[in-house]
Recover the amino acids of this structure.
């Protein structure tokens, strides 16, 4: 069943001429927008796995919805229906979903600025400001960092002729660590010195094998008892 104020909710815009108080509209719009974010982040997790930043931020969205739900109870405002679980479609790539997350968080910050324009009661203002701050100071930077990492990872794989769609295939925990490290160093030009081109063009699985082999040799050396000259 559609919401009685569906057009207002979809527009994310306060309507002074509507037959609902502005405070009523503002709280319902805020909750509706948090519903949309939660559904999107949940769908990304379903498609790509329980990975950050989506896995962390979706938990925060639940807290945001709970905070707005308490305002609904306090002011006798019905909670809006949530249509987004059945409507939401994620982007076809990990990188595109991160970009969508950035756009959503920026839009969320702007939305709360709009909703605060009605000068709501102090408790509502406090909740709106807290949620806006969470988007601006926590969620947005997390998505931006993840996008930088994704771009570096895809660039690293592209240098080896690997398409972006294969850049996130998992080869094991050690290989994943090596890939992440190489992606970071690839972003930092000149960090490898003379051996940079050789390391960048080597397959991560090969490098992981070299690292594992070196660690095994180091371990065996540590375990082998040394013979002192007096024992000869």
């Amino acid at each position: 069943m559609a919401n009685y104020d569906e057009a207002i909710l979809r527009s994310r815009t306060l309507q002074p001429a509507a037959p609902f108080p502005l405070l009523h509209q503002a709280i319902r719009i805020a909750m509706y927008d948090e519903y949309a974010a939660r559904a999107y982040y949940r769908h990304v997790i379903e498609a790509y796995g329980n990975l950050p930043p989506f896995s962390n931020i979706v938990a925060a969205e639940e807290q945001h919805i709970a905070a707005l739900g308490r305002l609904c109870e306090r002011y006798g405002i019905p909670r809006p229906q949530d249509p987004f679980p059945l409507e939401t479609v994620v982007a076809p790539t990990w990188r595109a979903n991160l970009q969508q997350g950035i756009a959503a968080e920026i839009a969320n910050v702007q939305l709360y600025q709009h909703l605060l324009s009605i000068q709501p009661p102090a408790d509502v203002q406090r909740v709106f400001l807290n949620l806006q701050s969470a988007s601006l100071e926590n969620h947005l930077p997390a998505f931006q960092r993840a996008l930088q990492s994704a771009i570096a990872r895809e660039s690293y794989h592209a240098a080896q002729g690997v398409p972006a769609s294969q850049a996130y295939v998992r080869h094991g925990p050690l290989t994943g660590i090596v890939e992440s490290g190489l992606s970071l160093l690839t972003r930092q030009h000149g960090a490898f010195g003379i051996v940079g081109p050789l390391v960048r063009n080597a397959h991560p699985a090969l490098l992981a094998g070299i690292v594992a082999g070196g660690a095994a040799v180091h371990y065996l050396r540590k375990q082998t008892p040394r013979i002192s000259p007096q024992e000869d």
